[in-house]
Amino acid sequence: MDVQGRGRADGVDPADQWVRNPRTGEYELRSAAAPSRPAVPGPRGTRGQVPPQRGRRTAPGEPPAGRRGRRPVRKKGRAKKALLWTGGTMAFVLVAVGSAAYLYIRHLEGNVHTEDVGNAAKSDFSKDEAFNILIIGTDKRTGKGNEGYGDKGSVGHADTNILLHVSKDRTNATALSIPRDLIVDIPDCRTKQADGTETVVAGQQGVRFNRSLGESGRDPGCTMRTVKAATGISPDHFMMADFNAVKTLTTAVGGVGVCVEHAVNDKESKLVLPAGESKVEGEKALAFVRTRHSFGNQGDLDRIKVQQQFLGSLMRKMASGDTLTSPTKLWKLAEAATDALTVDKAIGHVGTLKDIALELKKVPTKNISFTTVPVKDNPAEKIRATVVVDESRGPQLFDLIRNDESLTEVKKAKAKEKAEVAARLKGTRSAASEVRVRILNGGAPAGSAQTELTWLQTEAGVTKSENDGNADARLARTTLEYAPDQAAQARRLADVLGLSGAALKPGKSVTNAQGLPTMTLTLGKDFKGAGVKLNSTSASAANVDKSTADKVQCAG
Description:
alpha/beta, eight-stranded mixed β-sheet, six-stranded mixed β-sheet, 24% helix, globular
């Protein structure tokens, strides 16, 4: 029998066996002397706490004296806790405890389901690198009470998808929602069968993203490969959950606050809410994130915005003091989270999930950005029920994530550096429409010259620009070479791109296709994405729609 089973004997919640010691600030097993609740047995040699000596007045914050005749015992280990959130229709908090709860850890280990997706996922988790986790919420009608949700007989499509990128320095994270109705090419996918054999599921071109899972036997590894093919971003790991996840997790934290601009009475999802703020949990929480008829244009893109608002609220709730200081809530969250997940084999251990939790906990909620793949209506459909990637904005956002750039301002440029740049760029500036420049790729990701050209022409007004292919050599830093009589043009382009004074290289001009002298902009390895200023530590200047986890928003 595990610790959980023993702790629940006589109707006692095992989470109640942990109490906070005001002298240490840590959680410890309740003293065996407490008459109201039996202690949870720990590993061999752990018996409880040392009761105070008879006849001595109990100090403030000290546990009450035990029964006379109890043998003094020693405390072994300290309870530890860690917070972890994920996106999509699921999020989880993982409790990691010391040796006194070893058996309970083994119990949690048994809760986690794993699936082997081969080389689609990394073989291990690194605490020293940036990482990408693909969060998948399926529409499979499994679990008690879920018979009325999703598509009847569904094999479990990729219904809700969020690619979570956590920066290497842990200052920021980006949660990129991928619409289920996005038209993509699904690549060939090698999957493992129940009998251990492998088979290759043939790919498909021009189909909905949600078909990358479940259909034709596709596993989460197929969805990971589809994300890479569509965005150029490689997921390192995956976490998948069904409808039960959002129900159990919101119940475990005692409900999540939501806000709606107008009263909701949705007959399809059974969601009924008054205008303003409310609290939802369980079935009501699931109805909130699944409804599509109550907000915006009643489409999937508007539902994604509602889900992002809900997840931000859930994250704030889980990070709040009343959750983190409640052993009962933490215990229930550990149960709900581990039982709700299916993950790849590399992270299918409580210890690894704890490590992920601790890394995520370092990211401030103000720097956790929610955004969606930039899309436009599918021109091949008359009804336009599907969407395609907006090529004028999508590659820019994908570049930012690949280059580990934040969508929020995480640092401020030093005043001295600003002054130096201002001094170097002192002088008159040409109008953007008069700037002539050719663009070379000298170390940036493939396709960067074209995406930068598109941004310059459509967003910055630098219409006299052209893509001239790859440079002869790879550069660490982006440079702009110009002739002396092009200094005014160089200053204008430096303003537009955020080039430092050191990036400006007086030299000679070249002749463009029209026979006119033009400057040469060579994109180096420091290129951060189309429209992102080179002197910025974030993508705040980029054309990206986003929200952050620290802001309260109302769905409308």
